[in-house]
Design goal:
With 285 residues, the chain is α/β, with parallel strands linked by helices. It has a single domain (6-275), classed as Glycosidases (TIM Barrel), CATH 3.20.20. 32% of the residues lie in helices and 16% in strands. The protein has an eight-stranded parallel beta barrel, surrounded by four helices. Strands 2-3 form a two-stranded antiparallel sheet. Helix 1 (26-36) packs across helix 2. The longest helix has 18 residues, at 172-189. The relative contact order is 0.14.
Amino acid sequence: MANGRFVTYQPTGVKVVDGKLTQASDESIRADLKALHPHFDSLITYGAQGGAERVADLAAEQGFRAVVIGVWDFYNTAELANAIAAARRNPKIVAGLSLGNEMILSKRAAWGDLEHALDQVRAELPATALTVTETFAEFLDHADAKPTLAKMDFLLANIHPIFEPWFRQAGPANWSDFVIRVSELLAKTFTGPVLVKETGIPTGPVSLNFTPAMQRDFYRALEKHFPQTAIRAFSYFSAFDAPWRTSDAIVGGGVHPEEAHWGLFDAKRAAKLVMADFPPLLKAR
């Protein structure tokens, strides 16, 4: 966390079409990672199916330093088994597992279910760091979260300024300050490392007045004022655009067309404006 750089990543070949998950090939994932590796040495994934279970293997092959394997649905026994198997195959590169993404927010699980999942995987992978991912408010506002927090080795939180009511009246300095202040609150709630999994500004759609310049300016402000340390850092969100998510209503309720435009690269792996003056990647000491 102190010397590397994380990016959240879902393979460009993984899509949900008519409710069915497509299959990403190794070749497609290799091409994704080749585009990312000059700028990032660490990945956070979202699922362990549809080919995504191969990310840790292929990242190790390309020289990435760390992967946090995401499990979208820990009730899915096949997906959970895929994640555990990938961690066992790649002990040097797998930094941890995240069991579920916004399961509480989307009402796909209760806190007790997250505790059970953590216990279950701990028995399988006693030496692997474990966590869950929720929006910051779920961790801060619910007393029921405390037993789950006590079972986690590190905390992954999503902090999005664009969903705050004051967003349009503020600017990059305010957006980045919000992320920093919330991460400080999380650090007071959780004694272990805090890694902001999702934060950023989408580059579209134009109809909602999002622009590539807004994304660039936000990250430049965040990089300036959020020094990364071994116990607190942020991940860039997200690696690539996902056009198939234009009408995605899976998490959080409602339709959010901006979900298609979070990428630092577009869906064809072309770099956006934010990457033009990207700061150099610090090598591990």
